[in-house]
Design a protein that fits this description.
110 residues, mainly alpha, 5 helices
């Protein structure tokens, strides 16, 4: 959603790669809060979790930096359609990164 918003605004002026950067920043801040609160339901370690979250998101961003121009320039898809395809892959990968790295908590013995 952030990509679409920025593509229809910033992207018109600066191109789809600028859209990617702006949408990365906005989505990390929004998604971090939502993942902590609704998906993984963790507390504490906010700064550590945020740093780990961004590491996982940077992997997805790196995939995006390569795949987006490839799909737009080489394949000829629009930036929004290309991003929709990429999101399917990166969301799946990042879920496991967040589950086993970003929001991992030590097992507690009962």
């Amino acid at each position: 959603l952030w990509f679409v918003v920025f593509e229809l605004t910033v992207g018109r002026l600066w191109g789809y790669m600028a859209t990617l950067v702006f949408s990365h920043i906005a989505s990390v801040l929004c998604a971090f809060w939502m993942h902590r609160r609704f998906v993984f339901r963790v507390r504490g370690h906010v700064w550590r979790d945020l740093a780990r979250f961004e590491v996982v998101q940077l992997v997805a961003f790196g995939i995006n930096l390569v795949a987006l121009p490839l799909l737009v320039e080489a394949v000829g898809l629009t930036p929004i359609v290309s991003q929709a395809i990429i999101v399917v892959v990166t969301v799946t990968l990042s879920y496991f990164g967040h589950r086993y790295f970003s929001f991992r908590r030590k097992e507690t013995s009962s």
